[in-house]
Specification:
The chain is an alpha+beta fold. It contains 18 helices and 11 strands. It has 4 domains: 1-133, 2-Layer Sandwich (Beta Polymerase, domain 2), CATH 3.30.460; 137-222, Hydrophobic Seed Protein (Orthogonal Bundle); 223-322, no CATH class; 327-381, Serum Albumin, Chain A, Domain 1 (Orthogonal Bundle).
Length: 382
């Protein structure tokens, strides 16, 4: 984790070489709010090549004037004052021009609460009334909100993220601009939208952010989430990430292809949604087939949808009491079956294992070696 003290050492070294430098953005905001700081950004009038002459660096975004500076075990993104060109892709400037002053750099940033500067001596420099917005707990764009969102539509999702994190209100003109321009989110890579949404859901004030998404109509442009968000906005507690997406896709009926989930998460949401739409309770066969975790998730979703009681304790107890939880638990191995009947391996082995599992789950067959051997001898002859 990067620390303010180490960041000040970077600033001190830059100033020793005759450059200006400040801590900027979220680290200043969180410092003033007395919240933990993680990533610390530094802005300077030194060009990337000049920064690289002073520190050990990595060229992480030279096109945008950024290098990563290594200070011991810590790293800091150091970016040259800049003015952004046109945002032709609605996400990144087509080009950047290095700015003459730090004020020019600040005024191209997203929100006033992220536009604060801090000197090596802890002095706050504020060109955008960010301190006032921190005091009154307001999320407001720097300059015209339509301009800021036209430059980078993802800033709309970031407004909700900051609301979820901080509990602040979103300024009226900022909110109105989001309502007007929400369709631009369709042009953003959905993996970026997903990242902001997941961060939002983990926020202490996620409920407030979800309600703002509905107020501005953003829920309507997020594929497959509209019905779920409308339901969740009235809940006392926002569900965790997996339950949120499972609930949304349970109501939607499928997982839209636009979402860039990993195969593991897509499979998880597909199966849990199917279970929620198919079962209100889970018998031994279902628990065995789909496992404890997915059955608990499906029940949690059905409980949130008022379709079922909260059966968490019962499901856990029923799973614990299953006579068998995997075909590996059978007291007769495949090699034993082959040896027992002196027959070549083949599909018959898996078929017979499946049948034995079914019978054991129904308590019609004991999971004991002698009983299973008798079952094999009987059914192979058939």
């Amino acid at each position: 984790m990067s620390t303010l003290n180490s960041a000040k050492k970077v600033i001190h070294e830059l100033k020793k070489q005759g450059y200006e430098a400040y801590i900027v953005g979220g680290a200043v905001r969180d410092h003033l709010l007395k919240q933990p700081t993680t990533d610390i950004d530094i802005t300077t009038n030194a060009k990337p090549y000049q920064v690289s002459k002073i520190f050990k660096t990595k060229p992480t975004g030279v096109k945008y004037g950024t290098v990563t500076v290594f200070m011991g075990e810590e790293t800091f993104e150091v970016t040259t004052y800049r003015i952004d060109g046109e945002y032709l892709d609605g996400r990144h400037p087509d080009m950047v021009v290095f700015a003459e002053s730090v004020e020019e750099d600040v005024k191209r940033r997203d929100f006033t609460i992220n536009g604060l500067l801090m000197t090596e001596e802890n002095k706050i420099i504020d060109f955008v009334k960010g301190q006032e917005d921190l005091r009154i707990k307001l999320i407001r764009t720097i300059g015209n909100p339509e301009d800021r969102f036209n430059e980078d539509a993802l800033r709309m999702m970031r407004a909700f993220y900051f609301q979820a994190k901080l509990g602040f209100q979103i300024d009226r003109s900022t909110r109105e601009a989001i309502s007007l321009l929400k369709d631009k989110l369709k042009d953003i890579a959905m993996e970026r939208v997903l990242q902001e949404l997941i961060k939002l859901l983990k926020g202490k004030h996620a409920q407030k952010a979800i309600q703002s998404m509905v107020t501005t109509g953003v829920h309507e442009v997020l594929p497959g989430l509209e019905k779920g968000i409308l339901h969740i906005q009235n809940m006392e507690d926002i569900p965790f990430v997996d339950a949120f997406f499972t609930l949304c896709f349970t109501l939607h009926g499928s997982i839209p292809s636009e979402w860039s989930f990993s195969n593991k998460h897509r499979h998880r949401y597909e199966i849990a949604s199917m279970l929620a739409n198919t079962y209100n309770e889970f018998d031994a066969h279902t628990l065995y087939t789909y496992g404890l975790d997915l059955c608990l998730l499906a029940n949690k979703v059905n409980y949130m949808l008022n379709r079922s009681r909260n059966l968490k304790s019962k499901i856990e107890e029923d799973y614990k009491n299953l006579p068998i939880q995997s075909d590996l638990d059978l007291k007769l191995r495949a090699s034993d079956m082959i040896k027992l009947v002196n027959k070549k391996a083949g599909s018959w082995v898996k078929t017979l294992q499946t049948q034995m599992v079914e019978e054991v789950l129904k308590n019609k067959l004991k999971n004991e070696k002698s009983a299973l051997e008798a079952y094999v001898l009987e059914h192979v002859k058939e």
